[in-house]
């Protein structure tokens, strides 16, 4: 198939690389040759790593020869599928989608990797609303297996099926939402993790390092919550936070993240965020081996969010778990972990924090019902899953 990837930054260059690894022809479009050349260098470095490990058999130069770079949309005139990965600015998305709609063949699907702008708003920039869809990759796209597929109210079933199939053919695990919700699945849960991490620190319950040590050493996550926030980019975190809350999700008061962004401390990409990254390169953060933070407390708001998603039939418990395993490299699904920690413990923490005046922690009916019925997880034989 022939693809256009518009935007060659952190996500765009990774998506183009994945497509080329799987044998596709890619037109990588961006506004300047400086940006495109930097993308080429990053793709070269990444492909070299894969080649040396043997996970990619073809020589990097052969794979790269399938990627044609351009500063003009004209190269998109014979594509089958486009994926947009430009900054989250509505006017920019408008320009990209209007240009693609004008130049790409009428039957081409136009996907967006947005993490915070409603897909239907983007679809409305085009004359092919049924062929516009969300295809949300996770950072780094070369490694993370998850792709969230988000049909808008206009997207046809054919477009959704083709997008799911494409994700599968790229070795990814697609999770399709039944209805579009702000932040989709992964970022809604990631937001809740950031909010609780921030609340614990700002209320003096724990330090940043203790929160992150709990996440990494007790729960087994690949990164602490603040460490992951630095990795994603604090400007992106604040952006997705504001976009989700603006569209009707309850907020948790927190200043830490915004203050960092105001000081231009954006995480890995600026060399400093909650931690320091010499040379603007990610380096595993050093954390204390032990922590007083309770995993059931740190995960409580995220589990409550997952319960909301399940209760509202957006996704099934196993799909929430796929999102966290394949999009965030959780060692187990969030709801599997919740079953192990005990739904009663999760509920107790939610009630405790709610009673301190944080309205976002109001326990979901599903959790209250599960506890009432004695479905408290592994120890009772049933929680989100059944145990023999
Ligand atoms: N290309 C090729 N290889 C890469 C790579 C890339 N771009 N990035 C990392 N690697 C390789 C490294 O070379 C290393 O290989 P090795 O094990 O053979 O030495 C391996 O991956 C592990 O990398 P590191 O040693 O640098 O560090 P870690 O062991 O911590 O792994 C990680 C890095 C895979 C990123 C891991 O920390 C992780 O899974 N973190 C969680 C990431 C996550 O949650 N992403 C989702 C963010 S949210 C999002 O994207 C949504 C958006 O909308 C905000």
UniProtKB/TrEMBL annotation:
Ranges for domain 3-hydroxyacyl-CoA dehydrogenase NAD binding come to: 3-177
Q: Which UniProt keywords apply?
A: Oxidoreductase
Is Nucleotidyltransferase one of the keywords UniProt gives this record?
Answer: no
Q: Identify a single GO molecular function assigned to this protein.
A: NAD+ binding
Report the SUPFAM superfamilies cross-referenced here. 6-phosphogluconate dehydrogenase C-terminal domain-like, NAD(P)-binding Rossmann-fold domains
What are the 3-hydroxyacyl-CoA dehydrogenase C-terminal domain coordinates in residue numbering?
183-277, 297-387
Specify the taxonomic lineage.
Archaea, Thermoproteota, Thermoprotei, Sulfolobales, Sulfolobaceae
Q: Which PANTHER family match?
A: 3-HYDROXYACYL-COA DEHYDROGENASE FAMILY PROTEIN, 3-HYDROXYBUTYRYL-COA DEHYDROGENASE
Q: Which GO terms describe its biological process?
A: fatty acid metabolic process
Q: InterPro entries, alphabetically?
A: 3-OHacyl-CoA_DH_NAD-bd (IPR006176), 3HC_DH_C (IPR006108), 6-PGluconate_DH-like_C_sf (IPR008927), 6PGD_dom2 (IPR013328), NAD(P)-bd_dom_sf (IPR036291)
Presence of keyword Oxidoreductase:
yes
Q: Which Pfam families match?
A: 3HCDH, 3HCDH_N
According to UniProt, the name of this protein is: 3-hydroxybutyryl-CoA dehydrogenase
